[in-house]
Amino acid sequence: MPIKTAAIIGAGIAGLTAALALARHGIRSEIFEQADVLTEVGAGLQISPNASRILNALGVLDALLPIWLEPQDVRLVSGYSLRPVASVPCGDFARQRWGSPYGTAHRATLQKALLDAVTANALCTLHLGRHVDIKDRRGLDGIAGRDMDLVIGADGVWSKARALVPGAPSPLFSSNIAWRFTLPEASAPAILNKTSVTAFLGPSSHLVCYPIRETAAFNIVAIVSGSSASHDWSAIGSKAQRDNMLRGFSGWNSAILRMLETQEQASFWPLYEMGVGRWHNGSDTILIGDAAHAMMPFAAQGAAMAIEDAFELAGMLATRSVSEALDLYEKHRAPRIARLRQRAAFNQFAYHARGPIRMARDLVLSLRPPQSLAADMDWIYGYRAIG
Fold first, then answer.
1. CB 270 within 8 A of CB 229
2. Any idea where the FAD-binding domain is (predicted)?
3. Fewer CB near the terminus (10 Å): N or C of the chain?
4. Where are the domains of the chain?
């Protein structure tokens, strides 16, 4: 029979979305978060139509629409010459083609919208500052005041819930570092576009920039190769680490270099991805989001996949026994995640191309109109989650 209650470990995007998705089917959830206060690390994020469609179904999108920005397009630009390479239209085009908007926002904006909806929902209870022993099911039940039918691990790359799943995947360092910072629009170089998501491309490195409307700032992510020195994603990079980052952008346009050279408070974010493994234990525990399948950000789908996971898992749990739902969920979600991993790997290869491969990339992309490139995204952005 379908479950009545679930314990959700982690109150990030995956956990909060899972609580709302379960409540949509009348399933109560108890959300356990070890932090005393919810603070979202990182800065901005892109919310593509496959995710915004779900947020709309959960009653969250209306809180975002007056705040976020719907970029006119996603642009690929040479980091050396600033010459446009290609673009995919968004804005009204995204609404018409994929049936839902494409937006950019601060992570805290999305988290607050989810949190407000969770707080207002009688079927969702959030427990902050709870350093719970994941293996102690009686302890979880005791805090919640009721028996939990299922544990949902939504606690990220360094998940503790993963210990409950035999054969679960392990984090693997990707040999890439993401340097993240925001830049006020008033002090941003003129090369940054206030209406678009722009990816500046170069050999072995790239830079993604897009406006965050609610903070009047640009979100900047610079990705270069490097070594991992910390699991703290809010750590500030040392001078030696910053020097290594700047070497990765050697020869780039001078305006980009000046922008990077002044960012002494940029956060040093080692990029980890999950290896192959099981996402559930067959009976009472399942992993979603980064806890199950953290991936490289080259397809900008990390948050979207967490949202899809939560929505589809809830739909399956609402109509099936736990064991059947968990098995179906993994079989259903795994091929999509695998395909997105392949897309992200291809994007990394294309973004970081050099020499003749870079020239061939630019030639091929220049021959394709924006609408044709948009069609390549239909399977990602046009996906309609089952919930």
1. yes
2. 6-343
3. N
4. 5-170+274-381
Residue with tokens 């709302």: 20
CATH number for the domain running over 5-170+274-381:
3.50.50.60
Count other C-beta atoms under 10 Å from residue 162's C-beta.
25
Tokens read off for 320 = 């099936």
The average pLDDT across 300-314 equals 97
Instruction: List the structure tokens of 236.
Output: 């500030």
Helix (H) or strand (E) holding 344: helix 322-351
Tokens representing 271 are 């990029």
> Do 226 and 241 touch, CB atoms closer than 8 A?
yes
Does the pLDDT at position 230 exceed 70? no
Contact between 124 and 29 (Cβ < 8 Å): yes
| pLDDT level of residue 257 (50, 70, 90 thresholds) | very high
Identify whether the C-beta of residue 219 lies closer than 8 Å to the C-beta of residue 209.
yes
| Token couple for 357 | 């491969």
Q: Maximum Cα–Cα distance for the chain, whole Å?
A: 64
